[in-house]
Design a protein that fits this description.
alpha+beta
Length: 147
């Protein structure tokens, strides 16, 4: 699988009302009452694709008289089974991961041909795949000093 997106695409998605609504639904997300009208912008201060599926992001949420920065790692997947270990492939795990995924249909021109795909971004902290890659994949852990 080739990852079909870059920082500009992710930032555009982050500024959609669908993503802002999803972000507001996260328990860890800041001042919900100030931001509930969705009149805020999101900029990506740091974006690094550290593996085929893992995106490390630092986003900044800004509104009038409000600014806050969040560390927001994502896992990209097409089918959830792609990121599950065999022993994780249970109904409860799939439900939990799906509930913590933001999904949006994206249309892109690739090689002069319109391609539609579903962008599934999972909050990485919920997935064993993320932690296993971060801690035990030498290609990733060797990048830490330069990140």
């Amino acid at each position: 699988m080739s990852t079909p997106f870059d920082k500009n695409l992710v930032q555009g998605v982050c500024n959609s009302n669908e993503f802002k609504g999803w972000l507001l639904s996260r328990r860890w997300f800041g001042d919900k009452s100030t931001l509930s009208n969705l009149e805020f912008s999101i900029s990506i201060n740091y974006f690094k694709l550290i593996s085929e599926r893992i995106l490390i992001n630092i986003i900044e949420v800004e509104a009038s008289n409000y600014s806050k920065t969040y560390f927001l790692p994502f896992i990209y997947y097409e089918k959830i089974e792609e990121i599950l270990e065999p022993n994780e492939n249970t109904k409860d795990t799939i439900i939990n991961l799906t509930e913590n995924t933001f999904s949006k249909k994206i249309v892109m021109n690739i090689d002069n041909k319109q391609t539609v795909f579903t962008l599934n971004l999972l909050e990485a902290e919920f997935c064993l795949y993320f932690w296993r890659k971060m801690l035990f994949d030498a290609k990733i852990s060797e990048q830490f000093p330069s990140m």
